[in-house]
Amino acid sequence: MARAIRMDKKDNVATVLMDVEPGDEVDIEGAGGSLRIEAAETVPFGHKIALALIPSSKNILKYGETIGIATRTIKAGTHVHVHNLKSSRR
Fold it and tell me: CB under 8 Å to 74, separation ≥6 — which residues?
């Protein structure tokens, strides 16, 4: 079973603690209680996985803060990275 950690209960992404492959069940631990999702695609160790549908142009939340904006709709279980988010860092 793959594992990931959610830093804040408001987060809509979690960080995977090992490489994840499509179809893997991922146990999400940390803030907000536990959750289990199915990976929709490969997510490398240390990268983010979407916990729920994130519509295009909506905030991506990690640490309870906005870290970026979705550049397209991101389905639950999908890899969240530079290919589908625009950083909101200044």
Answer: 50, 53, 54, 60, 80, 84, 85
φ, ψ of residue 88 to 5 degrees: the values are: -105, 10
> pLDDT value at position 90?
65
Return all residues near 82 (Cβ < 8 A) that are at least 6 apart.
none
DSSP strand pairing (25-30 vs 2-6): parallel
β partners of residue 48: 15, 80
Place of tokens 């983010």: 48
Which among 49, 86, 82 is positioned nearest to 66, based on CA atoms?
86
Is 2-87 in CATH node 2.30.130.110?
yes
For the entire predicted model, the pTM comes to 0.94
Listed by start position, the domains of the chain span 2-87
Average pLDDT over residues 68-84: 97
